[in-house]
Amino acid sequence: MSNDRPLVLPGETIDLSLIPSHPKNPLRLGPGLRHIPPSDIVPTAAGELITNPVKNSMWVEYNSNRYIPSQNDIILAQILRSTSDFYLCSLAPHTPPATLPHLAFEGATKKTRPVLLPGQLVYARVSLANAHMDPELECVHASTGKADGLGPITGTGCIFDVSLGFARRLLMARPAQDGGLAVLEMLGGEEGGGMAFETAVGRNGRVWVGSASARTVVVVGRALQETDRGRLGVEGQRRLVKKLVREMS
Amino acid sequence: MPRDAEPSLNEKQFVITALQENLRLDGRELDQYRPLELSFGDQYGAADVQLGKTRVLAKATAEVTVPYTDRPLDGIFTIATELSPMASPAFEVHRPTETEVLLSRLLEKTVRRSGALDTESLCLVAGQKCWSVRVDVHVLSHDGNLIDASCLAVVAALRHFRKPDTSMDAGVLSVYTPAEREPVPLSWLHSPFCVTWSFFGEEGEIAVLDATWLEEQVRVGSCTVSLNKHGEICQIAKLGGTPVDAVSLLQCTSVALTKVKEFSGLLDRKLAEDLKRRDKGGFMSELRAENDR
């Protein structure tokens, strides 16, 4: 663990052997790292240094609570109000409002655009995030014109706030192997008695849990929040799921 | 500028549908409080109350001042509440919101106007010198039910507080430092506590205790009952909202009494624990001013 994911502190010098080198691709720096020309790479946050030799990228994985939008993040936004050609959305209480154009939905034209009320939730992608500018969202893939699961969220369900690091772990392709998060699999599997639910995880630290049964939503939401707050490992998550299922049945 | 985090439509709908099935988002019963923690500081008169994620710190202080001219025989007792932006993005400095005004008025009614503190005992020289006792309430974190948490913090702080001992000798008033004489407790008459009910549903038929911030934003009405462990009601505040059946209000007050007895027991236990912690070597009883010397 300590070998492939070394801890770094802000301002530290990164050992040269840790920086990936690729014959063709340029080196890509992610969050928590800063390039100081000509050739210094300095961490700006304390956390685990993660490198990907195939994509030739590196970043610092750390947990925080304040969301700063960045491009291509999938987020859960809440509509604040509508103007003549876009919706204003809130991503987090301390983040400036983001704009979501009326036409940035799958198959939307001036006549067929979805009408969203203030307070409604949308699952969206950040299409533009520059410093000192309001971020811009979209619910459609710009090149294919498909929604890919993005769009307004309907159905019975509730939002649960989690920390940003936890939301990123949930969004990993294999959360159980890479992030040590098996709680959702357990709830849907035999430990949870095969609960039926769906989730939408936003990188802004919000998770929407939907299910036909309100009881399931409460159990899943509590499991997520308590796993995050107690920093539970896989074994702790198993105990938590068993406890919650027993309490709520 | 940070915005007040108004809940989304999905959350509002879900809270109500879940409550109709007797479910709460944190898995509590409808009449169950969140885990309540009470701790005292190193100084006398500092109480820290944690109710789930809500956290309130109250600090009592006393100074010698001139009494009000229309009440020469009474001391001065004030409660100051402050809701800072630290508690929630909705609060701003020097701009009291409705929550803050209601909180300070309810505390005033519950603790001050119910005569919990005997203000006549604060008088030192009639018309010239008296104690001014002040309690500062700081909300450190706001996750709903500020009223109950703050009231408990204020009562705990005042019961924990000790004011410097004084003596009158031939017209000369002397105030002793803690090194000279052990400080004395306030003359406390009874301990009132607030219990807040939140009502949900079309006609307010679902009554819920200790609402979280999300539930408070969705509720159709609320009712705060203040009473002491003997069941003497100090005030009932039902400020607007949906009208509620009188019978259910009666039921609410009787449940509130059991909760107040729990609070009262907790506070007594914590005060006894704190006294034991301070009483190193068992000399505290010797130092008491009310002992025969």
From TrEMBL, chain A:
UniProt domain K Homology: residue ranges: 157-214
Gene Ontology molecular function terms on file: RNA binding
Pfam families: KH_6 (PF15985), Rrp40_N (PF18311), RRP40_S1 (PF21262)
Keyword terms: Cytoplasm, Exosome, RNA-binding, rRNA processing
Record-annotated Exosome complex exonuclease Rrp40 N-terminal domain positions: 27-66
Stretches that traverse the bilayer: none
Localization (cell): Nucleus, Nucleolus
Gene Ontology CC: one annotated term: cytoplasmic exosome (RNase complex)
Example GO BP: TRAMP-dependent tRNA surveillance pathway
PANTHER family xref list: EXOSOME COMPLEX COMPONENT RRP40 (PTHR21321:SF1), PNAS-3 RELATED (PTHR21321)
UniProt family annotation: Belongs to the RRP40 family.
Protein name (record): Ribosomal RNA-processing protein 40
Organism, as annotated: Parathielavia hyrcaniae
From TrEMBL, chain B:
Domain Exoribonuclease phosphorolytic positions: 32-164, 191-257
Assigned GO CC terms: cytoplasmic exosome (RNase complex); nuclear exosome (RNase complex); nucleolus; ribosome
Keyword Electron transport attached: no
Membrane-spanning residues: none
InterPro entries reported in the protein's UniProt record: ExoRNase_PH_dom1 (IPR001247), ExoRNase_PH_dom2 (IPR015847), ExoRNase_PH_dom2_sf (IPR036345), Exosome_comp_Rrp42_subfam (IPR050590), PNPase/RNase_PH_dom_sf (IPR027408), Ribosomal_Su5_D2-typ_SF (IPR020568), Rrp45 (IPR033100)
Domain of life according to the entry: Eukaryota
Keywords: Cytoplasm, Exosome, Nucleus, Ribonucleoprotein, Ribosomal protein, RNA-binding, rRNA processing
GO MF annotations, alphabetized: mRNA 3'-UTR AU-rich region binding
GO BP annotations listed: exonucleolytic trimming to generate mature 3'-end of 5.8S rRNA from tricistronic rRNA transcript (SSU-rRNA, 5.8S rRNA, LSU-rRNA); nuclear mRNA surveillance; nuclear polyadenylation-dependent rRNA catabolic process; rRNA catabolic process; TRAMP-dependent tRNA surveillance pathway; U1 snRNA 3'-end processing; U4 snRNA 3'-end processing; U5 snRNA 3'-end processing
Subcellular localization, as worded in the UniProt entry: Cytoplasm; Nucleus, Nucleolus
Keyword Metal-binding: no
Family: Belongs to the RNase PH family.
Protein name: Exosome complex component RRP45
Species for this entry: Parathielavia hyrcaniae
Highest classification ranks of the organism: Eukaryota, Fungi, Dikarya, Ascomycota, Pezizomycotina
